[in-house]
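User: Need the bound-state model for L-homoserine:
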Amino acid sequence: MKKKLKLGVFGFGCVGQGLYHVLEETQGIKAEIKKFCVKNKNKKRILDDSLFTYDKNEILNDSEIDVVVELIDDADAAFEIVKQALKNGKAVVTANKKMLAEHLEEIFELQQKYNKPVLYEGSVCGAIPIIRNLEEYYDNDLISSIEGIFNGSTNFILTKVFEERKNYTEALQQAQELGFAESDPSLDVKGFDAKYKLVIAIAHTFGVFVKPEEVINLGIDKITDADLKYARENGLGIKLVVRAFKSNGNVYGLVAPQFIESTSLLASVRNEYNAVIVQGAFSEKQLFVGKGAGSYPTGSAVLSDVSALTYEYQYEYKKRAQGSKLTFSNDASIEVLVSFAQKSQINIADFEEFKGGYQGKGNQYMHGLVKLEKLREWSFMDGISIILTPEFNFVRSKQVEQRVLVN
Ligand code: HSE
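Assistant: Bound-state model below.
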């Protein structure tokens, strides 16, 4: 028997309003919003004032509220809300990927301690139902890799830059206006947002809790006009690709821009759409595509979590429960094309295997295998653009192992 749930919602921004509207349109769901908790008292809102409070305890201490839906921007404040909600015996739905990625193991433990679920389908790839699929459909240890496009804003920007020849700043501004970008858009363009989502996906794919700072993220912010020209001349696109895979007892993962061939499954994923490719030992590849950002797509994912709570669904972290012994590692090298202004600090000795290079129009290019830790070092330096080659050549601890994950 489905139960009618009362919701207390934190935040009435892009996703909060999306949730409100999709819930209004859904006849079948047994849930209603009792209160929104918001920060700004002076903002004009489309709903009656009586639906809003400015005091978080009005929701957290309301014994009638079964579910706290956390949709605010501030990851630290969000974590405090989630902890208190669980402690007060409430289930939680959140879409806060930064908060989840930073505290996932703790949130896993808090769920056991208070015996209340935290669901977060909306935190990874918007409307693509990936977390519950990883938990339920892929409830075994046969997944070999998960990869794809996990950030809508950067995919939108790259689409506009490639297809409409818009400049980067203009395209970013449009992504902000459409509500795709984070309040701090550097989280999108520097690959942090995609990394947070990858960290969450790794827990449900491989049963490993990894800290975000362990995962290397390269963004699209350093891509140069010369890189775009190179891509166009060679019939390639560029996408911000997220990837994690297992190999020899380890899980490797990173976020980086990559040259993409027109035959790649990711090539036709445009604008704010996201994609997830799951590869299994026997099932081979499955591709999921859907809107990764925006009010209604994310609101729909949040609604689906609320609906799941009406039948008391909770994540079981199945791969972990099955005794996954995998550990996260960055001890590997990867093939990249690096471009930088002349006289920069990069030289041939930085490469594990140097494959070639040239100079032209004030830029230097070098191509070869580089250790992941070296890429991390370069990612903090200005004026260095790093793009993975289309083949995704990966070498683990000196043993050559060629993997073609994107094709
Ligand atoms: N800024 C995020 C993106 C929003 O562009 O994908 C959805 O998580």
